[in-house]
Design the sequence.
């Protein structure tokens, strides 16, 4: 059974930094495109970033480019999202997802950016 | 960045049929956009129902089907059940990036 478990969500002040993690079991992350997707309170889903199998492709939605970095730790089979320069509009539940045709999703971790 | 459009809300009677659509601001939606459809119930993570226009995952109920209709991607629910009440999001690929539609809230009433 595939499990993706996100962690690292916190209350952080504007301008601050945060690192989200996604621990995987039942799936080898390095065999798949993996993504971060977020959902602001009461809003829809927004694709944030993805990384390919050999890490040669990392791309981001324009609103986070230069502030967020996606990475993967193959030894620990985990996915990460380093976030800096956080803004109030980054407040959201962050999901990791991917696998074979987006067949796997975590339960999300809440990031709140507020003073 | 492309804008993906969906109906904000639709209502369907139990046992009835409803079609949700997914359009693009850049032109017709094609198989080259690799359309996905995801279902999300309140308080839950999204779950992917349809991949690449019309392919189903093993957990996708047979009453859901995906297609291209005119210039849009479409998700048809035939024989709606109370448990199908949820938000449905389409997801399209644009030049290596992904864009979600705003979602359609489906009410079974």
Sequence:
């Amino acid at each position: 059974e595939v499990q993706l478990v996100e962690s690292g969500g916190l209350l952080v002040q504007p301008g601050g930094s945060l690192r989200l993690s996604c621990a995987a079991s039942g799936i080898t992350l390095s065999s798949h495109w993996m993504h971060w997707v977020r959902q602001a309170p009461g809003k829809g889903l927004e694709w944030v970033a993805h990384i390919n199998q050999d890490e040669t492709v990392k791309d981001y939605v324009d609103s986070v480019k230069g502030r967020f970095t996606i990475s993967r730790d193959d030894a620990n089979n985990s996915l990460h999202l380093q976030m800096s320069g956080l803004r109030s509009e980054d407040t959201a539940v962050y999901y990791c997802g991917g696998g074979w045709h987006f067949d796997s999703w975590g339960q999300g971790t809440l990031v709140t950016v507020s003073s | 960045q492309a804008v993906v459009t969906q109906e904000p809300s639709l209502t369907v009677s139990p046992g009835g049929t409803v079609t949700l659509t997914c359009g693009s601001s850049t032109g017709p939606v094609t198989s080259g956009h690799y359309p996905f459809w995801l279902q999300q119930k309140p308080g839950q993570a999204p779950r992917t129902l349809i991949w690449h226009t019309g392919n189903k995952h093993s957990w996708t109920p047979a009453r859901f089907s995906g297609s291209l209709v005119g210039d849009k991607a479409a998700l048809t629910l035939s024989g709606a059940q109370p448990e199908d009440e949820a938000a449905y999001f389409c997801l399209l690929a644009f030049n290596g990036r992904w864009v979600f539609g705003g979602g359609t809230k489906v009410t079974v009433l």
In short: The two ends of chain B are 36 Å apart (CA to CA).
